[in-house]
Design a protein that fits this description.
It contains twelve helices and 81 strands. Its main location: secreted.
Length: about 1450
């Protein structure tokens, strides 16, 4: 303690010190068995027994009464799943986690120790309190308990095939949780020399040697909502890469290297983790996401979080932070259950370099739960009536081009647009009355050029003029937007909506939308929606569908709506709901583009909508809609279906009819065909929700537009399928077959995968004229007239404002207008400043000057008295004149002004720079060179003055020319450039290498061979110079020819090639294997296992994805023996399904929610030789025993009362090569029965020592799962989940017959109540799960439960209450119900992943796929009371009770 106190004192007192000694092992909290610690058992994936807490611990804002300590460097408030479900994944986790060092750790063989305890020792509590009060001086915290967990000298997991690591490559670290009645704090301690490895290799790396850095931080885990699904909670990450892990013991947020402190929970209100912030040279906060938009009633789009296709790298996103109500990352994200909007934050952005600790405040992440709703290949439905074929077009006359004009300045607001007309599909009037042109009153480009966009050209035709967007832009010519750039929409929503009979007013509430034009994703959010109408408007997705139609992803021979309408149009839609016939009118009017090029749309909603109860969920399937196009009008009619899920009524289906017309201003002068055309829009994904706590209504829709026909092969191209990896500010250009090209949008630069905005103003590319200022916009720019000027009649030229025309001066003063300004002078005989004049001889009290008027007009405080930040307030001298130098109090920028307060050009300086001497006369401004423009356009500091790392800043010489050698300050790469700054080929050198002499002339370039072209075309580094992993780069010899043997640098596979670089069949070898001699003929080793179908398919897709599949792309998952994994998923999404042994999807198993389907493999794992004889070894002297199926064995777990007696557990029957799933027991004959998925058989064996298995049925079985024995009638019943049948037979296998073979999709569990002769079974069909019953002879079939269930795996009978009970892996609940459907009740609401269940003496015992064990639940207390985890960790399947006598209800 003395050493610790001295160390802390040194930190606090020595403010001038540049480094503080890191903590030593002796400075850690006391640990070990002598201090009362328990020791975690050795192993690769071990979890402690329940660590019961004397009082609840508040983690975030939730109380927890128990903890678990795990091998892999974490503490959890819930029992943990198998490590493969979390150890290689980033945050968030789906269970609560405190992670001092989450990695794949293995203490097998006595390597390292893990200690843990709960303590109330005063010395420990006092030390925790001392650290908390240093890090949080205002905290009112007195800990009552502490949890201390220590990992001492623990190594990383290593494959046996790899050489062992050095013995000193072990880690030591500690986590201490202190808490009282209301708060919790956590300390992480990393002693000097305690971290010697910083990440681990994933077990399922498929021989790719990529080390995953350890994860350090906190995750709340899943948060249950009011219905069956769950939302993922907030999380906080301390580390992001290997260097940040190394920094753990070199830095700290407590002022001491290696010591980190966090506030982790509060009983009453807690948003997310708060780190300590003791300033000092060794203090650095973690790298986390950053968000600054918290002051608006409308959510920023960094609140949208997923949606599966949105897998963005935040470091490559468009820089959009300068605009209100916008965010960095357009991810669609449902709200947390508690509605705390502060948790809607960004995925992690990583700031800072590896060597510079930064000090800005961290904000936190929230993982997208909506991914569970996004299916990569959802079913498609066609609108009623089918698709209409385009009518034959009339022949067109040749266009007569008279004249062409190209505008060069900003366009003014356009003249009023189209008249709004109502159109019925059956009665389309081609004379729309929108615009009438006559040759007598012809409009020409010369007169009306200002009506065209600044990014358009004007063309005169015989009857008038038309505007056309320039190449690189799209629109109707009057408004043009950059190709490929994301688009934003803002506006207001008003109107009165009747919910049932209750009117609800919408008073100009905010609407914002964000559209990723590159793949057609449209997100819409409406704020401040009153609750009753918020729920009821969820089905009205057509509100947001407009924006999807405007900016849909265009397939071949189609065009999105904005190319027709531009930014001025009107849409009228009528929605009729069935069966209630409620009618709702939607009128949306587009009023042009605002100053940021955002579309402005007003929405008026009126009419009636059906009532939806609070907490309801609405789902809508993908659908197609056909649009008919006429001159100035587009129309559509469709019928939509949607489902409403409520707690009381379960899932119900409804529909509505939509009729709409969109009227706009087209241009008829270029002889466009007047006959109708049709296009079809495919809305692939529709997601809707209402967030009650924030009163936000959200719609997210993915849109593709195409001709009305069957999809052609072009849909497979990644550009059309949405599987490309182009930046959100880039266009995907389809090439032949599956090839494509990424091209940055107009106004952006980069390689298409990473695009950056071009600052047209800084680069001198703007089109602004005299007396105007250039304002950069994402992908574009606009021109703004200087003060005292306004746009003239043409809307492009800035002309002087005659301020005197508005009589601004006093009545006894005269106004003198000047260029850009004016003066007021009192008339003769009057005194004053011209704004106020008096006849008094004595000079009156000095009146306000122009500067003082300007200064006092600036509003610096809000109506509530709080300061308004970010405003510029002029500074005046004693006489009220402008100070020559003005500075912005928020940004720190300074500049010189003239006597009128106008900024003098060239005098602005950034924060911290030496200001210009404003008393010196203006020098002729130096005209910037290309290099200086380039250099000065790079943003190197944030708005707060902190450096932005990772940006390349060109280096210029004294004359402003590019230095011949350029170097990247962050990556260390150097290269030579020419006079234009373009890189000279072959001159780039990596960090630390000797640079090329850039003054030497360039040697004549050697003509590249085919191999060299291939090699040099492979992109191996990112735009920032970092290596890109996972790509194959050919190896060429000195003459440029392919080396005979090629190897993949990432995967380790090698193969032989011919002279063209083509692989020679049969020569590929896996990593570590002896390579084939490529100079000799190929000899195939007969003992080598050939690549399986799964492995071949996987390899081909990985190669197709360029070696690095995206998180949303499908790659087959294979078992170690090459077979298909039973569960297949799209990348990192929750869109999963079951497959058979050939990889074919099992019908009815598709899942797109948070719970993966419960798939069982039909292929047994490889048998370990030698195998033991398959005979029975029953436990000795046991009355009640649980029998459980675990793949290749049946285990026996005796009960001691109702407690699990782990000490007497043993293997009852070893069945190598089997997959035992269903299990049942005959209490009269003392025999165990089971189903075998591998052998496709039903078997039995007597429970006496030495008994051997007996095969009862082994024909016409495919996937026998659940099994039940009727002791009284001597019958057995089973379900077969592939043919979807329920069968029965006598106990000896005779008398077999089918009971049911219809209306079954995925039957799983089955039980029989012998006393009543009733059969019960579950069907976990993901579309319509249910529990049914019938008599044992197949009569009186009926549905018992169909509402509020998700994945009913387990089923049992409570003989005490005579109720049927089930455990649901989807809802996580254990529930019971009477056979007549009454008396439904929840026994436990927070299970993990139950598979099978049995009831005995007021306890439920179930097998759990998360824990891979047996869990006990007390029926009356609704608590977990015990658990058993077998030493062999794998899935447990069926479970039953074996007794020495028959239990009540079983006979």
């Amino acid at each position: 303690m003395e050493r610790w106190a001295m160390l802390a004192a040194c930190v606090l007192l020595c403010c001038s010190c540049t480094m503080v000694t890191a903590i030593q092992r002796a400075d850690m909290f006391p640990y070990g068995t002598l201090n009362g610690d328990s020791v975690l058992r050795e192993g690769d994936d071990e979890t402690s027994k329940v660590l019961s807490l004397p009082r609840p611990l508040y983690f975030f804002n939730s109380p927890f009464s128990q903890l678990y300590v795990a091998t892999n460097g974490i503490i959890s408030a819930q029992d943990l799943p198998m490590e493969k479900q979390y150890v290689d994944d980033g945050f968030p986790t789906d269970f609560p986690v405190v992670a001092p060092f989450l990695a794949d750790i293995d203490t097998s063989g006595g390597r390292g120790q893990i200690y843990y305890r709960v303590t109330e020792i005063p010395s420990v509590l006092n030390r925790v309190a001392q650290e908390v009060h240093r890090g949080f001086p205002d905290a009112n915290f007195t800990p009552t308990h502490a949890v201390v967990a220590t990992w001492e000298n623990v190594p990383a997991y290593e494959e046996q095939t790899r050489p062992p690591s050095p013995p000193n490559k072990v880690n030591t670290f500690q986590a201490v949780i202190g808490y009282d009645e209301t708060d919790s704090y956590v300390l992480f301690l990393y002693p000097e020399g305690g971290l010697n490895f910083f990440g681990t290799l994933p077990k399922e790396s498929y021989n790719v040697e990529i080390e995953l850095p350890a994860r350090v931080g906190f995750s709340r885990g899943e948060i249950p909502n009011i219905l069956t699904s769950r939302n993922e909670g907030p999380y906080y990450s301390v580390t992001s890469n290997e260097q940040s892990v190394k920094n753990l013991y070199q830095f700290g947020n407590s002022g001491i290297p290696g010591l980190w402190l966090f506030h982790t929970g509060n009983r009453y209100s807690f948003d997310n983790i708060v780190p300590a912030s003791i300033k000092g040279p060794v203090s650095t906060p973690p790298t986390v996401g950053y968000d600054s938009h918290m002051g608006t009633t409308t959510p920023d789009y960094d609140e949208f979080e997923e949606y599966v296709e949105n897998t963005f790298d935040p470091n490559t996103q468009e820089r959009e932070d300068d605009y209100p109500l916008t965010g960095r990352n357009p991810e669609f994200q449902p709200a947390p259950a508690d509605g705390d909007r502060s948790r809607f934050l960004l995925p992690q952005n990583h700031y800072g370099s590896d060597n510079i600790p930064l000090t800005f405040e961290p904000v936190y992440g929230f993982e997208p739960p909506e991914r569970q709703y996004a299916s990569p290949n959802p079913p498609q439905t066609v609108a009623e009536g089918g698709a209409q074929q385009p009518q034959e077009q009339q022949p067109q006359l040749p266009l007569k081009v008279v004249n062409v004009h190209t505008p060069h300045r900003n366009a003014p607001p356009l003249s009023p647009g189209a008249h709004v007309v109502s159109v019925d599909e059956e009665q389309v009037n081609f004379d729309t009355g929108v615009i009438q042109y006559t040759t007598e009153n012809k409009e020409t480009c010369a007169r009306f050029l200002q009506q065209c966009s600044q990014n358009a050209f004007c063309t005169d035709y015989a009857t008038g003029f038309c505007c056309h967007c320039q190449p690189g832009f799209y629109g109707n010519g009057r408004q043009c937007l950059p190709d490929g750039a994301p688009q934003r929409v803002s506006g207001k929503v008003s109107g009165t909506v009747y919910v049932g009979s209750t009117p609800v007013s919408l008073n100009n509430i905010d609407l914002h939308a964000y559209i990723v034009v590159g793949d057609g994703r449209a997100y819409t959010a409406i704020s401040e929606v009153p609750e009753p109408v918020g729920w009821a408007l969820m089905p009205v997705a057509p509100i947001g569908e407009l924006f999807g139609w405007l900016f849909a992803l265009e397939l071949q021979n189609s065009q999105a709506g904005f190319k027709l309408t531009g930014a001025e149009f009107s849409r009228h839609a009528e929605v009729v709901f069935y069966p209630g016939n409620q009618r709702l009118s939607i009128i949306q009017t587009a009023r042009g583009l605002d100053d940021h090029n955002h579309l402005t749309v007003g929405t008026v909603i009126s009419g009636s909508v059906p009532f939806l109860p609070p907490g309801a969920e609405v789902t809508m399937e993908p659908f197609k809609e056909t649009y008919q196009y006429y001159p100035s009008v587009a129309t559509s009619t469709s019928i939509r279906e949607y489902s409403v899920v409520t707690a009381d009524r379960g899932s119900e289906s409804f529909s509505f009819q939509l009729k709409q017309n969109i009227t706009y201003r087209d241009c008829p002068h270029n002889n466009q065909a007047a006959t109708p055309e049709t296009l079809q829009i495919l809305m692939e994904r529709v997601f809707v929700m209402f967030v009650k706590e924030e009163r936000i209504l959200r719609y997210a829709i993915t849109n593709k537009i195409s001709p009305v026909r069957a999809p052609g092969p072009e849909l497979h191209n990644p550009c059309y399928a949405g599987t490309h990896d182009c930046d959100t500010t880039a266009q995907c250009i389809p090439l032949e077959d599956l090839a494509f090209q990424c091209q940055c949008a107009t106004g952006y630069t980069g390689d298409g995968h990473n695009c950056y905005d071009i600052d047209e103003c800084a680069e001198g590319l703007g089109t602004c004229g005299d007396n105007s200022e250039c304002v950069n916009l994402p992908g574009s720019h606009r021109c703004h007239c200087q003060r005292g000027y306004e746009f003239g009649y043409d809307g492009r030229t800035c002309v002087d404002i005659d301020e005197c025309s508005s009589s601004p001066c006093h009545i006894n003063a005269r106004c003198i207008n000047g260029l850009g300004s004016f003066q007021c002078q009192c008339q003769l005989g009057f005194f004053g400043n011209g704004f106020y004049c008096s006849q008094q001889e004595d000079r009156p009290e000095r009146l306000k000057t122009r500067c003082e008027h300007h200064r006092d007009s600036v509003k610096t405080t809000s109506a509530d008295g709080y300061p308004i930040t970010g405003v510029y307030k002029p500074q005046c001298d004693a006489e009220g004149q402008y100070l020559p130098q003005q500075c912005h109090g928020s940004t720190g920028y300074c500049w010189c002004v003239d006597s009128r307060g106008e900024e003098r050009a060239g005098t602005r300086t950034p924060p911290g720079a030496a200001p210009v001497d404003c008393d010196r006369p203006d020098q002729p401004e130096h005209v910037k060179t290309h290099c200086e423009h380039h250099r000065d356009s790079v943003k190197t500091t944030s708005a707060d003055g902190y450096p932005i790392v990772g940006a390349y800043v060109p280096q210029c010489d004294a004359e402003g020319q590019y230095l011949s050698q350029q170097c990247h300050g962050s990556t260390g790469y150097c290269w030579c450039v020419d006079s234009r700054g373009e890189e000279r080929a072959g001159t780039r050198t990596p960090p630390g290498a000797a640079p090329v002499d850039c003054d030497r002339p360039v040697q004549p370039e050697h003509l590249k061979t085919h191999c060299e072209h291939h090699r040099d075309s492979v992109k191996t580094t990112s735009a920032d110079g970092y290596p890109i992993t996972g790509v194959y780069k050919p190896q060429c010899d000195a003459e440029g020819q392919y080396l005979p043997q090629q190897c993949h640098g990432s995967t380790g596979y090698c193969w032989c090639v011919d002279s063209r670089g083509e692989e020679r069949a049969g020569t590929r070898t896996p990593p570590g294997a002896a390579p084939v001699d490529c100079d000799r003929p190929v000899a195939v080793t007969p003992t080598e296992r050939p690549e399986s179908m799964c492995e071949r398919w996987r390899a081909s897709l990985i190669e197709h994805y360029g070696g690095k599949p995206g998180p949303q792309q499908y790659v087959p998952q294979c078992e170690p023996d090459g077979e298909f994994s039973p569960v297949q998923c799209y990348g990192e999404t929750n869109y999963c399904w079951c497959v058979d042994q050939n990889g074919r999807m099992v019908p009815g198993t598709k899942s797109d929610d948070a719970v993966k389907p419960a798939c069982i493999s039909s292929v047994p794992p490889p048998t370990v030789r030698p195998t033991s004889r398959p005979d029975v070894t029953p436990p000795i002297n046991t009355g009640i025993t649980l029998l459980y199926a675990q793949g290749q064995k049946i285990g026996a777990l005796p009960l001691n009362g109702t407690r699990l007696d782990e000490s007497r557990s043993k293997t009852l029957l070893a069945l190598h090569g089997s997959i035992v799933v269903g299990i049942a027991y005959d209490c009269k004959e003392n025999q165990v029965y089971w189903t075998d998925l591998s052998a496709r058989s039903i078997n039995r064996a007597s429970m006496v020592s030495g008994a051997e298995p007996e095969v009862l049925i082994n024909t016409n079985l495919v996937s026998p799962e659940g099994l039940a024995v009727d002791v009284k009638r001597r019958l057995m019943f089973w379900v077969d989940s592939t043919p979807d049948v329920i069968e029965r037979a006598n106990l000896d296998g005779s008398g077999r017959r089918t009971l049911f073979d219809t209306d079954l999709v995925n039957p799983r569990a089955i039980i029989v109540v012998s006393s009543t002769g009733t059969l019960y079974w579950t069907d976990w069909n993901r579309e319509a799960p249910k529990i049914e019953s019938s008599s044992v002879d197949g009569q009186n079939r009926q549905v018992i439960v169909s509402d509020g269930i998700g994945l009913p795996n387990a089923l049992t009978y409570d003989s005490a209450t005579e109720q049927i009970c089930w455990a649901d892996a989807g809802t996580k609940r254990l529930e019971c119900i009477s056979s007549d459907g009454s008396g439904r009740r929840v026994i436990h609401a927070n299970l993990n992943y139950p598979f099978s269940m049995v009831y005995y003496r007021n306890h439920f015992y179930y097998t759990d796929w998360r824990r891979d064990g047996v869990i006990a639940v007390n029926k009356h207390r609704s608590l977990f009371t015990d658990e058993y985890l077998p030493e062999q960790r794998s899935h447990l399947y069926g479970i039953t009770v074996a007794t020495t006598h028959c239990l009540p209800g079983s006979h």
